[in-house]
Amino acid sequence: MRTSWADAVATADSSAAATSASPSNVAAVSVAPSRGGGRAAYVPPHLRNRQSSSESPAPSPAAGPSGAGQPPAFAAPSPAGGSRWGGGPIRDVGRPGSAGGRGGGGGRHSRIGGWDRREREANPFSNDDDTTEADFDSQETSGINFDAYEDIPVETSGENVPPPVNTFAEIDLGDALNENIRRCKYVKPTPVQRHAIPISLGGRDLMACAQTGSGKTAAFCFPIISGIMRGPSGPRQRGSRTVYPLALILSPTRELSIQIHEEARKFAYQTGVRVVVAYGGAPINQQLRDLERGVEILVATPGRLVDLLERARVSLQHIRYLALDEADRMLDMGFEPQIRRIVEQMDMPPRGQRQTMLFSATFPKEIQRLASDFLNNYIFLAVGRVGSSTDLIVQRVEFVPESDKRSYLMDLLHGQRDTGVHGKQALTLVFVETKRGADSLEHWLCMNGFPATTIHGDRTQQEREHALRSFKSGATPILVATDVAARGLDIPHVAHVINFDLPNDIDDYVHRIGRTGRAGKTGRATAFFNESNSSLARALTELMQESNQEVPDWLARFSTAHSYGGSGRHRRTGGARFGGRDFRRDSTFSRGGGGDYGYGGGSYGASSGYGGSSVATSAWD
Ligand SMILES: Nc1ncnc2c1ncn2[C@@H]1O[C@H](COP(=O)(O)OP(=O)(O)OP(=O)(O)O)[C@@H](O)[C@H]1O
C-alpha cells in the first residue's frame, strides 16, 4: 500500500482538525475591531460569503478592545521560545471568519508594505491541479511509511538547542498558518521541520542540512511567516518608491525562486503577509509593480535583487529574516561575491541583528566555514548524513561508452514506455553537461518519437517556464536539462532521473537525483559512467554504499584505482556514516588561529579543487 506524508492525511484528518482547532491556537486568535470606533469593518470580497460558524475563532482574550492597529504583545514568549522579533501570541489577522478587524484578510497588513485593502488576495490553492493526479497516481507503485523517517539520525550542535516537536500543533504557528498547513495536506512535520522550526522560532540562526525532498522549504518559510505575523509592522513609506521587505529568501535559480514563491504564498495565504518574487529574465516592470503593492517576504535570485537594490527600489534596512536556500550553492565561487555584496555591503542589518537561516542537502566543510561569516551563534542541524542521498531512490550506474549513450537511453525509455500506464510515460529527467548537448539530445529524442523538451541557460525565460510546465503536466514527459534544473525543483511525478552525462561534483549528483524520491515517495536514478568520469568513482561508490545501493564490481575497481588521485570535492568527507559534520567540531578547521573558529583561512579558493561545477552565474540567475 502506498503510504507517504501526503497520503497519511486521509487517515489523519482528525488530528489535523485538532491542530487547527486546538484551544491554544484559538486563544491566540485576535479579532481586531475596526479603527475609528463605530465604522463598519471592511470585509474583503473573498471573505464576504464565508460562513463564520464553524471556522470562526473565539475572540482572543489577548486582543483586548483596542487590539487592532497596535503592535502585538511582544513581551510574552511563545511556547517555542519566541524570536528576537517578538515572542508574543500570534494574531491571526486573515483567518476566515476573523474578518471583523481592520481589513479582514489584509489585517494589520492592509497598509503600504502589506496587502492593500483594495486588493483581492488570489487563492494560491485554486491552481492546485488534481486532474492529472489520477493518471499519475497509478504510476507510483510504492512508497514508504512516513514513520521510517523516525529512525533517521539527527545531529545538532551549538548552544542551548531548542527541543524538537512532534506535531505542528505543538508549535505556536498561529491559526491562519495552521489552516494553510492543513490545506497543503501536511499532517505532521518532516524530521527537518521538527527540528528546524523550533530553532528558528526560538530566534536562533541556523545552518540546516537535510536530504533532498524532505521539506526544507516549509522549514524556513513557517518561522518567517509566523515571526512576521507576530512581530511589529514594517515601516510605512509614503511617497517613496523604495520598498522595505522584512524577510529575504535567496535561491540560485529563477525556477526555484518561482517555486518557493508559489509555496510561500500558500503558507502565507490570509495571514496578511505578502510574498513577492523577483528574478532575472522576466520584465522588471511587472516585478516593480508587484513590489509597490507591498512586500513582507521577498523571494529573489541574487542578480535581479542587486539590480533592484542599485535602482533603490528595494532596501534591506528592515530585514529581520534572511534565508539562503541551496546555501552551499549560493556561497560557492559562482555566487559568493554577489551574496557578500547583498548581505554585507548594502544596508542589511548585520548578523546578530537579523536572523539567518541556511538550508541545503549538501554542505561541504569549506562552504560551512564561509557561511559562518553570515551567522551569529548558530545551531548546526544535520538530518541524515550531510550530503547523503535518500534511501528512497534506487540508484544504478551503467558503464556506457560515450558513443553508446543514445542507444542506451533509447532502451531505457522504451522500457519505461512499455511499463507506462494509460499509454503515458513516467516523467523522466535527463541531465546533460552542456546547453548545446541538451538541445541536440532533445532534437534527437523528438525525431525518434519521444516527446521531449529542454531547460537550460540559453533558452529564454519564457521558454524555460513553458518547458517546465509542459513537463510537469506530463504533456512532454521527458525533460533534458543542464544543472539549472538540478537543485530544489519539486516536480511530484518524476519517476526517473538519468545522468546521461555525470557531473564532476558528487554534491551535484546528489541534488540531481534528488529530483525524484521526494516527500516519502520512491524514485529511480540511472547514471551513465565511463572513463571520463573516473574522478567521481570513489565518491559515487561511497555515496551508494551509504544509501544501501548495490555497487557494481567494475565501479568498485574504478574507485580503488582512483582512490589516490581524487581530491577536494570528488571525495566524500566525514568518513563515518554519522557524526562530526559541523565544521566547528572538525580539528582540521580549528588549526591555525584566526576567525571565529580558529580557522586559518586561505585553503579555500580557486585552488581548492572546487572548480568542478559551473560558475556561470548568468545561466543560473
Ligand atoms: N510535513 C509535510 N508533509 C507532507 N508533505 C510535505 C511536508 N513538508 C513538505 N512536504 C512536501 O514535500 C515535498 C518536498 O519538499 P521541499 O521541496 O521543501 O523539499 P526540499 O527538502 O527543499 O528539497 P530539495 O533539497 O530538493 O530542495 C514538497 O512537495 C512538499 O510540499
From TrEMBL:
It comes from Musa acuminata subsp. malaccensis (Wild banana). Residues 166-194 form the DEAD-box RNA helicase Q domain. It is an enzyme of class 3 (hydrolase). The keyword Transmembrane helix does not apply. This is RNA helicase. GO terms for molecular function: ATP binding; hydrolase activity; mRNA binding; RNA helicase activity. Its EC number is 3.6.4.13. The keyword Phosphoprotein does not apply. Residues 579-588 have a biased composition (Basic and acidic residues). It catalyses: ATP + H2O = ADP + phosphate + H(+). Keywords: ATP-binding, Helicase, Hydrolase, Nucleotide-binding, RNA-binding. Belongs to the DEAD box helicase family. DDX3/DED1 subfamily. Pfam families: DEAD, Helicase_C. SMART domains: DEXDc (SM00487), HELICc (SM00490). Residues 392-559 form the Helicase C-terminal domain. InterPro entries: DEAD/DEAH_box_helicase_dom, Ded1/Dbp1_DEADc, Helicase_ATP-bd, Helicase_C-like, P-loop_NTPase, RNA_helicase_DEAD_Q_motif. Residues 13-34, 52-82 have a biased composition (Low complexity). A motif (Q motif) lies at residues 166-194. PROSITE patterns: HELICASE_ATP_BIND_1, HELICASE_CTER, Q_MOTIF. It comes from the Eukaryota. Residues 197-381 form the Helicase ATP-binding domain. Residues 127-138 have a biased composition (Acidic residues). One of its GO terms (cellular component) is nucleus. Residues 97-107 have a biased composition (Gly residues).
